[in-house]
Amino acid sequence: MTTLPLPHLLFLLSHQPEKDRLDDDSEAVRGSLLRGAAVAQLRLSGLLLDRAGRAERRNATPATTLDPFLAQVLADVPADRPRRWFDVLEQRWQQAEEAVQAQLVAAGAVTVEQRRVLGIIPAEQVVLTDPGSVRALRERVRRAAQREPGTAPPPIGEAVLAALAIDGNVSTVFGWRDLWGHKAAVAELKDQVDRELPGLRSTLIQSIALRRAG
């Protein structure tokens, strides 16, 4: 599971095992969060660069074959024209959840079962193939925001997942009590992401606000 890209890990972190579905609190903004996680992955991989506050596509061949969702996000940045980060996040956000879920099914990380609520309303059950690995990932991400201030920073991938979960209110990762008393650690975490990926969180917060307002 650790080989999965950040948007796929964020999807798995959003899973409610007791209900076999994704959490309700971040549902409205999940598309934006998944796009943001994809942008983070592409920037950490060196395939997207920040050029004067805009997304610039690096003229390089990926070291490995890109996941289809990441490839689509990368393709949304023309090779010859930088784009605003906000425009990259807003492109096709409505299809992000379905695309990531389909790829997790193909990878064998989840299965999707059709059912009917009250025997009438069609619904999907998303079942984790390896719930233990997801629990372990969730604990690592939670610790990234709950460590003692001033200690060694977490790996950047875990820091990104934690920051996005906090900004997007992914309640399967953090409830409000989980962050109580950890304000300094959370501030350090967000500063780490902002240093390594400038503009990501500020732009994502705009997208989240737009989803919430809608």
Automatic annotation (TrEMBL):
Gene3D superfamilies: yeast vps74-n-term truncation variant domain like. It comes from the Bacteria. It is a peripheral membrane protein. Pfam families: GPP34. Keywords: Golgi apparatus, Lipid-binding, Membrane. InterPro entries: GPP34-like (IPR008628), GPP34-like_sf (IPR038261). This is GPP34 family phosphoprotein.
